[in-house]
């Protein structure tokens, strides 16, 4: 039975619709993770081990779900994490996500490997914006990426620190996924059975990663897997000194994306970061690593009063957001949750999923007996 957007009431519903709309290699690129995908699954199931304890009779007619994270006032405590290659999933790509995020008053993270320029995104999405920075071997490219984000008035720079080499994404190996897609016997069949996707991909403006154009050909003119790109194009010598210099050169709100240990969280404070994303890259890098929610408490205990902590990964429900904020996170972020929606229905899909989260968080706040998110704390949690 074919699912329609109006019947997509949650992230799994969006995933089902995305699977209908996308060729197999493209869907599995979004959906897949590293090795046995244990960490990928744990990112969401970790929330099942924690229960909410609500209060009643507190007067919750009006609730305020706004937060301020890394200097940005957001109308709700979840934002769109930066993800690459979005025009592969829908021809509007980052434009659609940026417009939807602006409509819902939340932040939009834009990848170095975006398929729409930061300059265009700044025009279509005037709300809070984060630029995600990959540290390339090519120092000229690094300088250009930072300058373009500055000139486009992006609010936050986030350095991704967990892609020092590519994760073993075996689904991509099985499907032969590359960027841009290569035509093989299997992929031609999959593209042919998804004619609307194929029509949009091959008739719209040429697929490109414009921030890399003129610097590297991989991923734009030369098909390459994402794992190979990370392993060959990114600088494996990147160190804390490099991160500190980037923080100083940016001279604004600066975060590290991919922090998982207390030791690294403390180092982030020491070099001047204003935020950290507790993240394992959606389970796409080191399988067997901890889930962000499992690791959140000890990191918040160590640095939560010194730096804004974001819980990123596995968020599929409003209750997941409330649990993370109860532990001590300032906000949550996610990638797959809106990529499925983008693939399912473009901007309308992203608006639908953000609207679902907004409704869930408001309803769950009322059921918890709170009127603002700063009323959440660990007293309203119990672990099994």
Layout of helices and strands:
Elements lengths: L10 H11 L2 H8 L6 H8 L4 E3 L14 E3 L2 E3 L3 E6 L10 H10 L4 E4 L6 H7 L4 E5 L5 H13 L4 E5 L9 H6 L9 H8 L2 H9 L22 H8 L6 H11 L2 E7 L2 H9 L4 E4 L13 H12 L4 E5 L5 H10 L3 E4 L1 H33 L12 E3 L1
Parallel strand pairs: 4-5, 4-11, 5-6, 6-7, 7-8, 8-9, 9-10, 10-11
Antiparallel strand pairs: 1-12, 2-3
Task: Describe this structure in a few short sentences.
The protein has 384 residues and is an alpha/beta fold. The protein has a single domain, classed as Aldolase class I (TIM Barrel). It contains 15 helices and 12 strands.
Q: What overall form do the CA principal axes indicate? A: globular
Structural class: alpha/beta
Rg (CA only): 20 Å
CATH topology, anyone? TIM Barrel
Order of strands across the main sheet:
4-5-6-7-8-9-10-11
Report mean pLDDT, rounded to a whole number: 94
Question: How widely separated are the two ends?
Answer: 37 Å
Q: How would you name the CATH homologous superfamily? A: Aldolase class I
Relative strand content: 5-15%
Helices, by number, come to: 15
**Which spans have pLDDT < 50 for at least 5 consecutive residues?**
none
N to C succession of SSEs: HHHEEEEHEHEHEHHHHHEHEHEHEHE
Task: Tell me what the CATH architecture is.
Answer: Alpha-Beta Barrel
Helix content: 40-55%
Number of individual domains: 1
Q: What's the β-strand tally?
A: 12
**CATH class membership:** Alpha Beta
> How is the main sheet built?
8 strands, parallel, barrel
